[in-house]
Amino acid sequence: MKTFLKIAFISLIAFSCNKDESSLNDYDLWGRLASKSGTWAVESLTTKDHTIANSSSIDLAPKFEFIQFFLRTYLIGGLNVEEHTANFYVGESYSRSVCEAEEQRVVFHDNQLYGGEVWTLKENKKNKQVWTFTTGNNTATLTLKRCNCEIPKVPGNESAG
Fold first, then answer.
1. b/e for 5-31, b at 16 or more Cβ within 10 A?
2. Is 107 part of any domain?
């Protein structure tokens, strides 16, 4: 009986070694986005008129080269506050957004208390993400690929206002 339990335990470990890291918690999209270096390069950005059957996708020039997802910590009234944050890099400059990553969507709040830009998760792999954003008749599709993108050094110090 002990031998059988050992074999079953070893088999369980061996079969789960090569599984996608989300297999234990499929709801932790934020953990996936921020893991490793937290950087994701734009592989493609396309748009399509979803009201026209069989319409073709059009390639767009993305507004940023890569995104870095990280937990930003700052002090307010003697308390450490943590905020899910995304930096959008273009060359040496970046823009920042507070964000949420839920099971099926990513929201960039852009200084809004509620709402913001909502992207729907279409594909959630450990090294590839595909998101869609619909506005009016158009649906944009953003494909991100995990990268080891070098994060530019930003001069000066950051302070929470």
1. eeeeeeeeeeeeeeeeeeeeeeebbbe
2. yes
- The confidence band for 158, taking pLDDT boundaries of 50, 70 and 90, is low
Q: What's the number of domains the chain is made of?
A: 1
The CATH number linked to 107 is 2.40.128
Q: What is the CA radius of gyration of the chain?
A: 20
Confidence (pLDDT) at 56: 93
State how far the Cα of 161 lies from the Cα of 96, in Å rounded to an integer.
14
pLDDT digits (tens, 9 = 90+) for 81-107: 999 999 999 998 999 999 999 899 999
Half-sphere exposure of 44 (CA within 13 A, CB side): 8
Range(s) of the domain holding residue 102: 24-146
Alpha-carbon distance of 154 to 41, in angstroms, equals 19
Pairing of strands 39-49, 58-59: antiparallel
Please count the other Cβ atoms lying within 10 Å of the Cβ belonging to residue 160: 10
CA 70 to chain centre: 10
- Quick check: pTM over 0.90? no
